[in-house]
Structure formats: structure tokens, C-alpha cells
Amino acid sequence: MAASAGGGAGVAAGGGTWPTETKGGWPDELLPRPAYSHEAVHDDAKRLYKAVWSSTDVERSAAEVLGPRSNAELQQLQQVYRETTQRDLRQDLKSGTGGKLGKLVRRSLLTPVELDAKLVKDAIAGVGTDERALAEVCTYPEPASDPQPDPQP
After folding, report:
1. Got the DSSP string for 53-91?
2. Does residue 149 have a pLDDT over 70?
3. Is 58 exposed, middle or buried (0-12, 13-18, 19+ CB in 10 A)?
4. Is the Cα dihedral 61, 62, 66, 72 positive or negative?
């Protein structure tokens, strides 16, 4: 894979390269970025709490805070939110957001295992089964479950 036009290239584990910085592109989990500092987590938790309880632009604040975060960072944010406010972030956002964006925001706060369980439950609920959704969940490989080839002697 070639490096992006705007930045240098890093060496991937398989010998290929990936861009180390982007210009105008989507953020990528593989790209280096600053750590989610203790202060930033607390600031984000406060910002979400204020947005939920002041009912001003909850959806915008949720998108700006949650959007650029990885799942691990979102789990950390939920924990800090719970510790500082004694409330559940998903429940608070459920009351402040609605429709498809609200569903997306709430599902983004689930761990990968919880999300898979939710998708399976939704796929088999009601009349009929959503085979496409069920097949996607059942056949999508988890990074930790990728079989590693045995070394040949």
C-alpha cells in the first residue's frame, strides 16, 4: 500500500506501509494519535453531562465527543462518567438523542461483544430472521480469534 500524498509512511507488520498522517481523510485506528489523557476524559465527561442536562445540542456534543474515539477510549469515558456523575452514560444519551443518530450513539458505547450480542438479538427478534445481519455477525472474524499458522519445522 502506498503512502498518502501528504505524509510519510510507516512500516506495517507484514512489510507493507501505511500513511502516518492524513490530510483531509478519515481518521484511522492504525494511525498514531495522542493518548486520551486523564484531563481530556474528564473534560469530555463534563461536556456530555452538561449537554444532557441542559438539553442543548446533545446530538452535536455526542457526535463531537464520541466520534473520534476508539472503542477502548469510549469504555474509559463511560467509566469516568459513571464515577463522576453516578449515572449511566448510555441511559443519559438515550434520553437526549433519538432516531437513527441516537441508536448509533448508544451502540457505539457497547463493547464489541455486547454489540455482537445486540445485533444477534435484533436479527432473530420478531417475525422472521434477518439472515444477512446474522451471517455478518457470525462470520466476521475477531482480531484475537484469527488463527495463526503453525510454524513449519
Report:
1. HHTSSHHHHHHHHHTT--HHHHHHHHHHHHHHHSS-HHH
2. no
3. buried
4. positive
- Cα separation of 21 and 40, whole Å? 22
* Residue 78: pLDDT over 90: yes
Determine how many CB atoms are found less than 10 A away from the CB of residue 94: 15
pLDDT of 74 reads 92
pTM: 0.64
Cα torsion 64, 67, 70, 74: sign:
positive
Nearest-angstrom CA–CA distance, 44 and 70: 14
Least Cα distance to 75 among 26, 30, 36 occurs for 36
What is the rounded CA–CA span in Å between residue 145 and residue 131?
Answer: 23
For residue 19, what is its C-alpha cell? 500513511
